[in-house]
Amino acid sequence: MKNEITISELARLMGVSTHQIRYFEDKEVLLPAYTDTNQYRMYGLEQVYRLAQILLLRKLGLSVQTIKESIDGPSPEQMSQLLRASVDNLEAEIKRLDELRRLTVNILEEQREYAGPSPAYRIKQRKATELKCWFHTDARRGMDAMLLAKQSPPPDLFESDIYFVIEDNGKMAVCTESKTEGDLMLPESRCLCYPFLAEDEGEIELRIQHMLQYADSQSIALNGPAVLVEKSYLSLFSPNKLNYELMIEVQEKDEAAQNGEGV
């Protein structure tokens, strides 16, 4: 009575494809017990257990090459080292996935905030924010591909808010948020804010002028540099346009009075 099974029967028993079994054979980690006269690969109980062990080690994160080098008679200490390395890799992957989950949740929350109905202009409290300056440029030049290519970009640039701090001297600091002390700090303050979508630099300039005109019409005294925050990741929801939020610090009434300005 024949005790061996074919590659198709082995694949069905172990819940894998025949292609995967042939791949393991190509890598010389699983060979058939023998090939019969009809050129069928035949597998016995020993190969069943060996495949089970290969699949377990693959599930634990070991490469096929590592399995090939270690599967035949590794010492307990060698196997322990391999599994400890697998744990380290899994923890790194868990951390990566957790960061990816937080990024995805943040994008969804930001999209809900900016997609919902809200006044075009609003005054809100800005938290103190440390910024790491990426580079300076002329505010009138704006951004282009050549300018970006000349810089050393921070990691995950377009997954983060990009701050364009427009200075009084016509220069613009291009920054990202920093978790430690940065090159520039935006103080906690009340700001006039204006979220909008724009396709090009000309439209951005127009929006800035509109907000300044609005502040003047409402006798809102502004203080400090204009800060334009680009949320490029939200373009996932608005193709061909970028999401921005323009914010300028509101001068408090006593400060404005001292400077002779109306509020």
Blueprint (SSEs and pairs):
Blueprint: E1 5-6, H1 7-14, H2 18-26, E2 34-35, E3 41-43, H3 45-59, H4 64-70, H5 76-115, E4 122-126, E5 129-138, H6 145-149, E6 162-166, E7 171-177, E8 184-186, E9 189-198, H7 201-217, E10 222-231, E11 242-250, H8 253-258
Antiparallel strand pairs: 1-3, 2-3, 4-9, 5-7, 5-8, 6-7, 6-10, 9-11, 10-11
Q: Can you put this structure into words, describing what you see?
A:
The protein folds into 3 domains: about 5-75, Multidrug-efflux Transporter Regulator, Chain: A, Domain 2, CATH 1.10.1660.10; about 75-115; about 120-260, Regulatory factor, effector binding domain (Multidrug-efflux Transporter 1 Regulator Bmrr, Chain A, Alpha-Beta Barrel), CATH 3.20.80.10. It contains 8 helices and 11 strands. An 8-stranded antiparallel β-sheet has the order 4-9-11-10-6-7-5-8, with helices on one face. A 3-stranded antiparallel β-sheet has the order 1-3-2. By secondary structure, the chain is an alpha+beta fold. The chain is about 40% helix and about 25% strand. The model has no long low-confidence stretch (mean pLDDT about 85). The longest helix is centred in the middle third of the chain and has 40 residues, at about 75-115. InterPro entries: DNA-bd_dom_put_sf, MerR-type_HTH_dom, MerR_fam. This is HTH merR-type domain-containing protein.
CATH topology of the largest domain: Multidrug-efflux Transporter 1 Regulator Bmrr, Chain A
CATH architecture group name of the largest domain: Alpha-Beta Barrel
Classify the secondary structure makeup into a structural class.
alpha+beta
CATH class of the largest domain: Alpha Beta
Count of distinct strands = 11
Radius of gyration: 31 Å
- Name the helicity range: 40-55%
Average pLDDT rating: 87
Q: Tell me, briefly, the overall form.
A: elongated
Number of helices: 8
Q: SSE order, as H and E?
A: EHHEEHHHEEHEEEEHEEH
**What multimeric state do the chains show?**
single chain
